[in-house]
């Protein structure tokens, strides 16, 4: 999780523990005493309880988005951070007695075309009773439907990933919540990863899967019927101001919105190419105009809510709550207010 080699960890510990001793700890040949555990915990930014946790999360096949931008070391860091976050989450739910039940409403739909993907998006909105209104707080929406969403503050290059927890059939989506990641981008990535989890596409090649997952994200954010109401069935001209207002309302980037309008044939392919060339010329493909930034809420507080519920109902001690939050007890106490 820290991206350290054994020698790197020894250096960080100012050689209080040698690389050779760390290797023996790692293999299980020697058990560190409490003082050494304290040093290790501080250096690795975990509590000592981490080394005694009983719940161990094993993830199934992991698919990174834009994996070509990540080194194998970066991938390992993200995977291990994910396992650690999920382990604490599952332990808390186990303490409270929450059962893990996830049902895929799309498991019987085989995806072969964009019309199949469109139907899948409509089905999800229908089964989850979302109507056609703009989606508010997609991260919390996914958690409300038994999908674990983990947010990691990572460098550019990591967008998101999805996997299943082995033996428990619990879906997990991991998103980059770094400062450079704007909420409209996070929303699109979350729904893209949801598509990987839900859509029956095992018979398709990777390129087609990515295309359909992007289509699904656009269809979820800006439904077909709403697009026709907001913009009309056919357009030969658009103003950036108009697209910016829609972005602020629906939480879909202008770039993703243009793809959606092309896919729905509201704008022609040639006009789409013209608009995308203009976006590139203006530098908006990387950073869209700040005056049209989407300012919604894209965060779930479910873990914190469950934590304080367990604490209030005396299911866990203050020390255990601090452990599950990966905080020192004094730090956790300073952030907790008791009614």
Automatic annotation (TrEMBL):
* UniProt domain HTH cro/C1-type: residue ranges: 3-51
Query: By its UniProt entry, which SUPFAM superfamilies does this protein fall under?
Result: lambda repressor-like DNA-binding domains
Q: What GO MF terms are annotated? A: DNA binding
Which Gene3D superfamilies does this chain map to?
Answer: 1.10.10.2910, lambda repressor-like DNA-binding domains
Transmembrane portions of the chain:
none
Q: Give the family from UniProt.
A: Belongs to the short-chain fatty acyl-CoA assimilation regulator (ScfR) family.
Protein name, as recorded: ImmA/IrrE family metallo-endopeptidase
* Species assigned in the record: Pontibacter fetidus
């Amino acid at each position: 999780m820290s991206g350290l080699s054994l020698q790197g960890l020894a250096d960080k510990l100012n050689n209080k523990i040698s690389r050779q001793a760390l290797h023996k700890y790692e293999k299980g040949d020697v058990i560190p005493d409490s003082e050494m555990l304290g040093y290790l915990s501080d250096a690795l930014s975990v509590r000592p309880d981490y080394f005694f946790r009983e719940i161990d999360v094993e993830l199934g096949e992991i698919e990174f988005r834009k994996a070509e931008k990540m080194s194998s070391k970066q991938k390992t860091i993200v995977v291990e951070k994910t396992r650690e976050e999920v382990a604490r989450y599952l332990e808390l739910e186990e303490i409270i007695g929450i059962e893990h039940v996830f049902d895929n409403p799309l498991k019987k739909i085989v995806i072969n075309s964009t019309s199949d993907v469109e139907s899948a998006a409509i089905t999800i909105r229908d089964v989850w009773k979302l109507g056609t209104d703009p989606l508010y707080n997609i991260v919390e929406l996914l958690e409300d439907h038994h999908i674990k969403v983990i947010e990691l503050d990572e460098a550019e290059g990591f967008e998101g990933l999805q996997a299943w927890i082995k033996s428990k059939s619990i879906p997990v989506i991991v998103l980059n919540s770094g400062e450079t990641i704007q909420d409209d981008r996070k929303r699109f990535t979350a729904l893209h990863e949801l598509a990987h989890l839900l859509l029956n596409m095992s018979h398709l090649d990777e390129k087609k899967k990515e295309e359909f997952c992007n289509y699904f994200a656009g269809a979820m954010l800006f439904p077909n019927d709403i697009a026709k109401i907001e913009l009309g069935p056919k357009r030969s001209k658009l103003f950036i101001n108009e697209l910016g207002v829609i972005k602020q309302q629906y939480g879909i980037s202008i770039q993703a919105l243009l793809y959606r309008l092309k896919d729905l044939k509201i704008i022609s392919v040639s006009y789409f190419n013209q608009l995308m060339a203009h976006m590139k010329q203006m530098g908006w493909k990387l950073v869209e105009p700040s005056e049209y930034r989407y300012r919604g809420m894209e965060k779930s507080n479910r873990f914190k809510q469950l934590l304080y519920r367990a604490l209030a109902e005396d299911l866990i001690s203050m020390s255990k709550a601090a452990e599950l939050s990966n905080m020192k007890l004094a730090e956790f106490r300073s952030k907790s207010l008791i009614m």
